[in-house]
Amino acid sequence: MRSAKPAASPLLWVPTGYFTMALGYVMLTSVTAIMFKNLGMDNGRAAQYSSLLILAYTIKPLFAPFVEMYRTKKFFVLCAQVLVGLGFAGVGLAMGLPGYMGFLMALFFALSFIGATQDIASDGVYVTSLDSRAQSLYCGIQSLSWNIGPIVAAGGMVYLSGYLHTSVFGHDPTVFGPDWIDAWRIIFFLAGGLTLLMALWHARVMPEGARAADTPAGVRDAGRILLDAFVTLFRKRGVWRMIAFAFLFRLSIGFLEKIGPFFMVDPASKGGLGLSNEMLGLVYGTYGLAAVLLGSLLGGLYVARRGLKATLFVLCCAVNIPNVTFLLMSIWLPSSLLAITAGVVIEKFFFGFGSVGFMIYLMQQLAPGKYTTTHYAFGTGLMGLCGLVTGVISGHLQEMLGYVSYFVFVMVATIPSFLATWYAPFHHDDGSAAKPDAAGKAVPA
Q1: Is the Cβ–Cβ distance between 209 and 72 less than 8 Å?
Q2: How far apart (Å, rounded) are the C-alpha atoms in residues 17 and 201?
Q3: Please, which residues have CB within 8 angstroms of residue 2's CB and are 6 or more apart in sequence?
Q4: Which PANTHER family does its entry note (predicted)?
Q5: Residue 219: what pLDDT?
Q6: pLDDT digit string, tens, across residues 320-348
Q7: Residue 425: in which H helix or E strand, if any?
Q8: Choice between 373 and 368, residue whose per-residue pLDDT is larger
Q9: Which of 188, 276, 430, 434 could form a disulfide with 308 if both were Cys (CB 3.0 to 4.6 A apart)?
Q10: What values do phi and psi take at 115, rounded to 5?
């Protein structure tokens, strides 16, 4: 009798699984904005087109129950990764066609839904293959691995695009237009090849993923569960203030997210800093993201020590106030790379520090109840919706206002975040309540 194949260590598939998820997401929703800009698209359309690709990730809670009804979760992970890899290669091929932009947008839009499906299935493998102790043990590795994705995509790939454009193909890095096609075709071939390699690896080491106890038995059952999840969400006490918090907490960041990199690469004649793609990849995509990771770690320790209720408004200040560094840079237009890097690192560090408050609030206050996972997904979906709405209009606003006035507007947009945070309700324990010691005396948690 054949013995069952031993399960592979989670260290073999958790880091690579979440890295692959992040690579696809960042390539679609962030790197495409830089590519559109390089290809000569104006800020309004570049920000709008790349932001529309967030839609699938925003509404994925609506089709998550249907994904889990069929086959295994690993099956969907592998299918999605193969399709994303082939799709990225298809993007590289399509860029050689006349009138390629229509083909690109159709491909990107399809790939965003496939990428969102990969996220659902990968999370499903993680949750159903690991017990609660293992989930907690690998949570930090999961988060770190996901954050390596943006460093590779928004840092490494953007840097490489500039190097290829200038040093390999010999084009002028300050001129945006069709000459950039050569470099970006190679970038998407590389991203596609890397995703296909990850699919081959996961076919070997990723577990199948068990069927969750509450998995719907059919389409009607899935629809019923979704409806009940909506109904129970809106019956929660203070739900509208929680929804306002979920949508508005990162409002100013949504307005800054696409325009920040555009400001970095636009020439001084347009009010920008005139950085090359190589420098953008280093400053924004590498040093900036490293600062986010460090800030997130320290922010988590800060909340764990003092509790969320006592720290949430401070965390909101950390997310929003340092945005002023972009306003200052737009006024003074520093030429020193050290000064530019410092401005980006300060904003990114405090963004990472404060953003942990958003996720913890959703877990502790919005999610608890009958549909914890679904309600948490609704909360993150509202965050995605905020990014989509602000991203779609941000480029058009910036073109109307210019960089200095636009960054003034970004600072004004912090006000709704402060109000939503100040009035955010706390109906569940935030972990800071005093707990009795062995003698029965209350001590801080």
Answers
A1: yes
A2: 10
A3: none
A4: MAJOR FACILITATOR SUPERFAMILY DOMAIN-CONTAINING PROTEIN 3 (PTHR12778:SF10), SOLUTE CARRIER FAMILY 33 ACETYL-COA TRANSPORTER -RELATED (PTHR12778)
A5: 67
A6: 999 999 999 999 999 999 999 999 999 99
A7: none
A8: 368
A9: 430
A10: -65, -40
Distance separating the N- and C-terminal Cα atoms of the chain: 53
Instruction: Tell me, letter by letter, the H, E, C secondary structure of 325-363.
Output: HHHHHHHHCCCCHHHHHHHHHHHHHHHHHHHHHHHHHHH
As given in the structure block, the two tokens for residue 408 are: 């003034």
The span from the CA of 430 to the CA of 427, in Å, is 9
- The strand pairing partners of 443, in sequence order, are 435
Residue 435 parent element (H or E): strand 435-436
- Among candidates 424, 422, 445, 421, which has minimal Cα distance to 435? 445
According to DSSP, residue 202 is labeled H
**CA 88 to chain CA centroid, nearest Å:** 19
Residue 367, amino acid: A
Burial class (CB in 10 A: 0-12, 13-18, 19+), 304: middle
Cα angle for residues 278, 341, 322 (degrees, 5° grid): 130
Q: How many CB atoms lie within 10 A of CB 285?
A: 27
Q: Which two tokens stand for residue 113?
A: 């839904």
Angle between helices 181-205 and 73-94 (to 10 degrees): 160
Q: What is the pLDDT of residues 15-49, one digit of tens each?
A: 999 999 999 999 999 999 999 999 999 999 999 99
Q: Which tens digits make up the pLDDT trace of 106-123?
A: 999 999 999 998 988 888
**Token pair belonging to 211:** 């069927």
Report the pLDDT value the prediction gives residue 2, as an integer from 0 to 100: 44
Please report the domains of the chain, with CATH numbers, ordered by start residue.
9-215 (1.20.1250.20), 225-426 (1.20.1250.20)
Q: Give dist(CA 283, CA 278) in Å, integer.
A: 9
Q: 83-121 burial, b for 16+ CB within 10 Å, e for fewer?
A: bbbbbbbbbbebbeeeebeebbeebbeebbbbbbbbbbb
DSSP 8-class letter at 424: -
d(C-alpha 20, C-alpha 118), whole Å: 9
Task: State the Cα–Cα distance between residues 431 and 442, nearest whole angstrom.
Answer: 14
Q: Which of 405, 80, 423, 91 is nearest to 243 (CA)?
A: 423
Q: What is the pLDDT at residue 289? A: 86
